[in-house]
Structures are given as C-alpha cells and as structure tokens.
Design goal:
Number of domains: 1
Strand order of the largest sheet: 6-7-8-3-9-10
CATH class: Alpha Beta
CATH superfamily: P-loop containing nucleotide triphosphate hydrolases
Helix content: 25-40%
Number of strands: 10
Bound molecules: adenosine-5'-diphosphate, magnesium ion
Radius of gyration: 17 Å
Length: 236
C-alpha cells in the first residue's frame, strides 16, 4: 500500500496587485504518495508554481495546512522549515539553476556539503548520482559546455543525490526537445519507483502524462480533475 507523503487541505493564497487581490489558490485539497509520480497540469497562470511552493515550504499560504512527512509544515519555525527543505526536498526547475563557474560534480557536491557530508563522502555520492543520470563522462564539465538536456540531468543529479523523500519538479522539460524531455521524465519516474520518493511534477506538456501514476488538473486556482492511471513506461 502506498504511504502518504504530503496531505494539504484548504490551501488558499492571494497576491495583491495594485488595489485589488488576485486569488491564486482557492482552497485546494491535495495529497500525494511515496513511490508515485503525481503530475499537476494546467494552463499558464493557473497556480501550479504557487501550489508547489506552498507544498514545499517555499511560500507560506494565507490559509490552510500542509502535512509533509507527518509534520505540519507551516507551523514550524522558519529555521526548521529551511532545515526540512534541506533534509527532505529536491527541486528541479525549468531554468536548471546551475552555477556557471562550477563543474557538474561540484554543483552536486556543494548541496551535500551543506547537508553535512564530509568532502570524500560528498564526492562519492555526487559522482554516483551523476553516473545514475548518465553524466559520468561529463562530470568535470561546466554548464557552458553542456547541452540543455545535460544541464537538466545535472540538476536532477543534484536533486536526487541526497535521496530526498520529496522531489518537486516545476516544468522540468519545457526548455528541452522531446528526446531529452523523455530522458528527464524517466529519471523522475525512477526516483519514485526505485528510491520511493514522492515526485510532484508540474507541467503543461501532455506527453509527460504517460509516466504518471496520477494526473491532477488545476484551473484558475482549483483542482478540476484528479485521475489515477497506470504508468505506461514503468521504471526504465
Ligand atoms: N509574487 C506574485 N505577486 C503577484 N502575483 C503573482 C505572484 N506570483 C504569482 N502571481 C500570479 O498568480 C497567478 C498564478 O501564478 P503561478 O502559480 O506562477 O501559475 P503557473 O505556475 O500555473 O503558471 C498568475 O496570475 C501570476 O501572475
Ligand atoms: Mg509556473
């Protein structure tokens, strides 16, 4: 039986724009399980990134609760929320967010050092993660000599190296061609199937549905559809 990783209820968030407010999350109920890829789809501006930010401790909702790994996320003091993210969450974004001056190996190592691993252990774990995403031969290259697909694989290695219980991906394939998009999505699938992470992947790319255990549609701050499915391409 799958184990619940996150359960959120009544999530409400609005932003001030001039004199009025725009409601972005309109009391959302959400849950996701370990070992599963939960896809959140919806048009641009529907609230997907805001939802991920509220679920992962990046942006405090105005109302509602998030139970993450059994803890009430937004009831923790700020420092504990940061520690929770560091210990438990991996993030993959559309724009890769790599440091230009660091090699692939250093990008991954630096996160592990923050977590308290010593240099030798960080190096070993980082090179293992880069091997896992197929970048072993490129680990000493910097971002400017890597393709878009390779850069995103570095970002994935960085996210999975600490073996996070929660893996958040926000439009991870939208800067990639189809082939690289599939490679990246397979790696997310594998993080769920082989490592038991709860993968929450936001996208508006319908081709990614094939990899999901569950597809949630969001429109204008509300969940409009929530469908369980069998992933066509199991852990490969
Ligand atoms: N910090 C902010 N201040 C004001 N409006 C924002 C802010 N962040 C997001 N929004 C607005 O909230 C809506 C939803 O944004 P977002 O969650 O980024 O949507 P999506 O990721 O689905 O494209 C958009 O209309 C966006 O302009
Ligand atoms: Mg977004």
């Amino acid at each position: 039986m799958s184990q619940t990783a996150i359960r959120a209820s009544g999530l409400y968030k609005r932003f001030r724009t001039g004199k009025t407010y725009i409601e972005v999350l309109k009391r959302i109920e959400f849950d996701c399980n370990h070992g599963e890829v939960t896809m959140v789809m919806g048009p641009s501006g529907s609230g997907k990134s805001t939802l991920i930010a509220a679920l992962s401790g990046l942006l405090r909702p105005d109302e509602g609760r998030v139970e993450a790994l059994g803890d009430s996320l937004w009831n923790m003091p700020a420092g504990k929320i940061d520690k929770f993210r560091l210990d438990n969450c991996g993030f993959i974004f559309q724009g890769f967010n790599l440091f230009p001056a660091l090699t692939a190996l250093q990008q991954v190592q630096i996160v592990l050092k923050y977590q308290g691993l010593d240099a030798a252990a960080a190096r070993k774990r980082a090179s293992g993660a880069l091997e896992e995403v197929g970048l072993g031969p490129r680990m000493h290259q910097r971002p400017d000599s890597l393709s878009g697909g390779e850069k995103q694989r570095v970002a994935i290695a960085r996210a999975i190296a600490k073996n996070p219980r929660l893996l958040f991906a926000d439009e991870p394939t939208s800067a990639l061609d189809t082939e690289n998009g599939v490679v990246v999505t397979r790696l997310l699938r594998r993080a769920a199937t082989e490592h038991g992470a709860a993968v929450i992947c936001v996208t508006h790319d319908p081709r990614l549905e094939a990899f999901a255990d569950r597809v949630i549609h969001i429109e204008d701050g509300r969940i409009t559809d929530d469908v369980r499915r069998t992933p066509a391409m199991a852990a490969q």
